[in-house]
Amino acid sequence: MKSLLLIGGGGHCRAAIDVIETASGYAVKGIVQPHEEGCTPVLGYPVLGADADLPALLAQTPTALVTVGQIKSPALRQRLFENLRALGAELPVVASGRAHVSRHAALGAGTLVMHGAVVNAGARIGVNGIVNNLALVEHDAEVGDHCHISTGARVNGGARVGDGCFVGSGAIVIQGVTIGRGCVVGAGSVVTRNLPENSIVKASR
Hints:
2 domains; Rossmann fold; seven-stranded parallel β-sheet; globular; 22 strands; alpha/beta; 28% strand
């Protein structure tokens, strides 16, 4: 059983803890917050230090996971991930015991797959991703680095999602569609055509 440092102690951290408690092979060591002062335990797990303490904390517990959420911009998660990588942290893939990840799929370092999610055969997901509760990444789909596939979203077979994208709750990416990097697909949207980089799509009313 490997101990995990969690980087960020907000709402997404709470959801991540619930996933880790069902995953095999990992146990939460504690939380790292931007500033340690005044921080209270998160679901009973202690705050071990602040960002400045990371080198010392990683010397004792070298495995870590970014547990800051991602709404729209991936900038903060990406910065934290790259800092951890520069410090030599081990950044595992963590999947809920109630998710299905095909053994024929490929997931990058630091990706979290949450309850009820499905990552099907031939799918590829980059580093530092979130595949949230009940999300689907279908066969042969590709999701880039630092992406959040939100609750109940569907990325269908052969679709391509570029780096740094946010696909909102219940959104559907039709099979074979390509979404450029940095796109925001709003909750409930249906993407039926290719999207250029940095597009913003909202659901039709």
